[in-house]
Design brief:
With 181 residues, the protein is an all-alpha fold. The chain contains six helices and no strands. The N and C termini lie far apart (43 Å).
Length: 181
């Protein structure tokens, strides 16, 4: 139930993110300024998210407490209202948590430069794998890997992505399937 509710919310947000990315890709040429605004925005977002994750890693326990509260609310709704209530709770918790999150902006940026079908499939596959791991092995894995460690690694990776995106922007490189029409 938790997996189905979570994936339903993530699927809705992923389709919306791909649509927004495609809208940016097909924006009229007169809106173009000559500056690689999309790349600079992506660099800024990657940098922000990297720093945010590194800060969360330093704070540690606060994000774990929020996760525990969400799990407790989901369990309470499941026992009091049945499967549909648990599904609706999982959907709403994940939907609200993911709106404006890193994966949403990353999907928009990718959909702007690459095939929408490939981005949609890749994002849904990634969400499915991550959600499956979280649902099936979250508690077991947390015994070996702390949330702080995950945040440190994720934060560093976002900063690497920011540096790579900025470097490509400075070098004047475009993504392989970048806007050609």
């Amino acid at each position: 139930v938790a997996f189905a509710g979570s994936m339903s919310a993530l699927s809705v947000l992923t389709v919306a993110s791909v649509a927004v990315g495609q809208a940016f890709r097909h924006s009229p040429d007169y809106l173009a300024t000559g500056l690689p605004l999309g790349d600079l925005t992506a660099t800024g977002m990657f940098t922000y998210f990297g720093i945010q994750m590194l800060r969360e890693a330093r704070q540690g326990a606060e994000s774990l407490e929020a996760q525990r509260e969400a799990e407790q609310e989901l369990q309470e709704r499941k026992t009091s209202g049945g499967t549909w209530a648990a599904l609706a709770t999982a959907f709403s918790l994940v939907f609200v948590a993911e709106v404006g999150d890193k994966s949403m902006f990353a999907t928009i940026a990718l959909a702007r430069d690459f095939s929408p079908g490939g981005v949609l499939l890749g994002a849904l596959l990634g969400h499915s794998m991550a959600t499956g791991i979280a649902v099936v092995g979250g508690s077991a894995l947390s015994a070996y890997v702390s949330q702080s460690t995950v945040n440190y690694v994720g934060g560093c990776l976002f900063l690497v992505f920011a540096a790579g995106t900025f470097w490509a922007c400075v070098q004047g490189e475009d993504a392989p399937d970048a806007k050609t029409d």
